[in-house]
């Protein structure tokens, strides 16, 4: 049985158990009313049963429980010989009216829930189209990624990442759009499209950075409000990892340097000479500095956005990424990011003031198996 099926079955069992509560209430209230003195009337409390049912069930089940409550009310009246009395008839009418109102509210709630589910499904599909998941293997590299959006109910925001093979090797980008929300998502989506197009057309990382700068500047000029000119930009880190050379080449456009994790359990942040962020019109390919670092088998690069290291705990302390990662240097990328994600969520209390993204890249020395023919 799959995890989904187990969860579905467990939810069904829980729903059936909860349904016993209103049924038990109907029985208890009925018995209590019958055995109580004649001057104590408990029948009106039967309306609690359909009200509780509507909390977790649909209109049909709620209406059925309401009908059962009315039958119990009628039985109480019949048992006391007052079924056709004005008092009992008024109680029956009130119970029927309240049960009908509860059913109507349940219908409206279910309709809104279905509409929300459809909207959420479309939004999730759109987000997955904008931010493709990274492949787990590219050549001799193993990759894993984590994205934690600051906006509730969102899967992506203003952070971005992508990876693609080029004649020069595997190229990776991670970036952070200034701001968050829908404008940041638009800029992130545009830059990802520009990267996927330009990654195969530029021989070096400086040329790639220049191409992204020109594309993003045109986009900002055409689509961003004029009163925000110069205030919209994207920090980005570009990587190039050749297959036949144990190095990694990096260009930082105002972005944080990654952590380099070696098998000897050393954690270091390479010194980078960052160029200006993309979109401000100052990224000149001729002035971009390419950092070249050793990247041997079993080495791991941990890329991240500032939302990770700027996450605060209740005391306002920033998340100490380098110190925490030093405990898990030997972990494969997937396990490493699971540990970091869990630890980061615990540190921040599950809430972030900014989007947070991480990528772990390990050189394995083993080629990924060829893709199956389709």
Automatic annotation (TrEMBL):
It comes from the Bacteria. Pfam families: SpoIIE. The chain crosses the membrane at residues 88-108. GO terms for molecular function: protein serine/threonine phosphatase activity. Keywords: Hydrolase, Membrane, Transmembrane, Transmembrane helix. Gene3D superfamilies: PPM-type phosphatase domain. This is PP2C family protein-serine/threonine phosphatase. It comes from Streptomyces kaempferi.
């Amino acid at each position: 049985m799959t995890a989904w099926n187990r969860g579905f079955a467990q939810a069904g069992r829980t729903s059936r158990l909860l349904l016993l509560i209103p049924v038990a209430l109907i029985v208890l209230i009925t018995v209590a009313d019958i055995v109580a003195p004649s001057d104590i009337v408990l029948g009106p409390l039967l309306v609690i049963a359909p009200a509780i049912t509507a909390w977790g069930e649909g209109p049909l089940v709620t209406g059925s429980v309401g009908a059962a409550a009315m039958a119990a009310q009628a039985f109480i009246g019949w048992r006391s010989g007052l079924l056709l009395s004005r008092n009992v008839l008024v109680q029956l009418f009130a119970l029927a009216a309240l049960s009908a109102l509860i059913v109507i509210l349940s219908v409206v709630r279910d309709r809104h829930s279905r509409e929300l589910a459809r909207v959420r499904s479309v939004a999730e599909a759109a987000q997955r189209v904008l931010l493709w998941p990274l492949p787990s293997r590219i050549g001799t590299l193993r990759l894993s990624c984590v994205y934690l959006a600051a906006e509730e109910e969102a899967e992506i925001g203003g952070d971005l990442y992508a990876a693609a093979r080029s004649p020069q090797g595997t190229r990776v980008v991670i970036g952070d759009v200034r701001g968050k929300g829908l404008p940041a998502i638009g800029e992130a989506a545009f830059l990802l499209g520009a990267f996927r197009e330009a990654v195969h057309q530029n021989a070096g990382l400086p040329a790639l950075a220049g191409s992204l700068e020109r594309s993003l500047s045109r986009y900002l000029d055409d689509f961003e409000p004029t009163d925000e000119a110069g205030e919209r930009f994207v920090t980005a880190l570009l990587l190039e990892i050749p297959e036949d050379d144990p190095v990694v080449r990096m260009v930082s456009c105002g972005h944080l340097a990654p952590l380099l994790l070696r098998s000897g359990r050393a954690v270091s942040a390479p010194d980078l000479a960052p160029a200006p962020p993309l979109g401000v019109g100052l990224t000149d390919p001729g002035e971009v500095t390419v950092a070249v670092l050793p990247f041997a088998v079993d080495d791991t690069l941990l890329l991240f956005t500032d939302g990770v290291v700027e996450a605060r705990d209740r005391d306002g302390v920033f998340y100490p990424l380098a110190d925490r990662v030093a405990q898990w240097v030997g972990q494969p990328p997937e396990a490493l990011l699971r540990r970091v994600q869990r630890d980061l969520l615990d540190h921040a209390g599950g809430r972030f003031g900014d989007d947070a993204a991480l990528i772990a890249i390990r050189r394995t020395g083993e080629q990924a198996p060829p893709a199956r023919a389709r």
